[in-house]
Amino acid sequence: MLYCPNCDNEYEEGLTACPDCGRPLEAAALEEAENPDIVLVPVYEAPNAYTAELVKGILEGEGIEVMLDGERTAVFDGVLSVESGSWGQVLVKDEDAERSLEIIAAYEKQAASTGGADDTA
């Protein structure tokens, strides 16, 4: 089953993008529906959808399954947003939490030391 991470709608196999928002569809995250025993824990509070996707990509690159729990739609992020605070959370399996936190901390340290834009702060 595929779903849109932006709209949170499920779609049958065969589609590649969400018919509503155009965002690429993803496989159902972490097989949560098939295994209710999976415990997801937040490892990062993302200020916006871009940063959430960045952290997700870093963790997935290390072989960690990730689920995003966004609280605002991407349309209202950034300049157009009138809300303050976090966009949402980056969630991982409980057993991957410690390693995920280490990976995120290493990325933030590297970004800070290179003087590059650190969108994860």
Characterize the structure shown.
- The chain is α+β, with helices and mostly antiparallel strands and 121 residues long.
- The chain folds into 2 domains: 1-37, no CATH class; 39-121, UreE, C-terminal domain (Alpha-Beta Plaits).
- It is 26% helix and 19% strand.
- It has helices at 49-61, 97-114; strands spanning 2-3, 10-11, 26-27, 40-46, 67-70, 88-93.
- It has a 3-stranded antiparallel sheet, with no helix packed on it.
- Strand 1 (2-3) and strand 2 form a beta hairpin.
- The radius of gyration is 15 Å and the shape is globular.
Q: Average pLDDT across residues?
A: 77
The number of distinct β-strands equals 6
Low-pLDDT windows of residues: none
Q: Percent of residues in helical segments?
A: 25-40%
CATH architecture of the largest domain: 2-Layer Sandwich
Structural domain count:
2
What is the fold's blueprint, element by element?
Layout: E1 2-3, E2 10-11, E3 26-27, E4 40-46, H1 49-61, E5 67-70, E6 88-93, H2 97-114
Antiparallel strand pairs: 1-2, 1-3, 4-6, 5-6
Quick structural gist:
With 121 residues, the protein is an alpha+beta fold.
Features:
three-stranded antiparallel beta sheet, Alpha-Beta Plaits, alpha+beta, 121 residues
